[in-house]
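Incident review: delayed structure delivery

Summary: a single-chain prediction request sat in the queue longer than the usual turnaround. Root cause was a stuck worker, restarted by the on-call engineer. No data loss occurred. The affected request and its eventual output are reproduced below so the record is complete for anyone auditing the incident later.

Affected input:
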Amino acid sequence: MTIFSRIVAGEIPSYKVAEDDQFYAFLDISPVAKGHTLVIPKQEVDYIFDESDEQLSAHIVFAKRVAAAIKKAIPCVKVGMCVMGLEVPHAHIHLIPMQTEGDMNFRKEHLKLDAEEMKAICEKIAANFE
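Output delivered after worker restart:
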């Protein structure tokens, strides 16, 4: 069971911004930008391109809804999307509010936000999820 599956199961706490029967979206605890969110399938799949066509399509559509909520909640020009998948063996999409393309740089120093700020960001995004 991956750390993400344990988050979905409620064994590990997270800052959940959105959820449906297939997907779960939560704030990255080591964000590259405020509002950096991960969107995962509840069903454990290691590699995003191992998802069925239907599952992958649904994953992207759910991520699109989360991105719209992020854009309403966090001042940004656009919300960037990135799929890397090397750090956790569970398919996931990174959604990152961007002012510039540099905001998508995963090699830069990540933010260290306290629990109060993470909770406030989470609540703003969740309130805008439709």
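Verification: The longest strand covers residues 93-98.
Action items: add queue-age alerting; document worker restart procedure.
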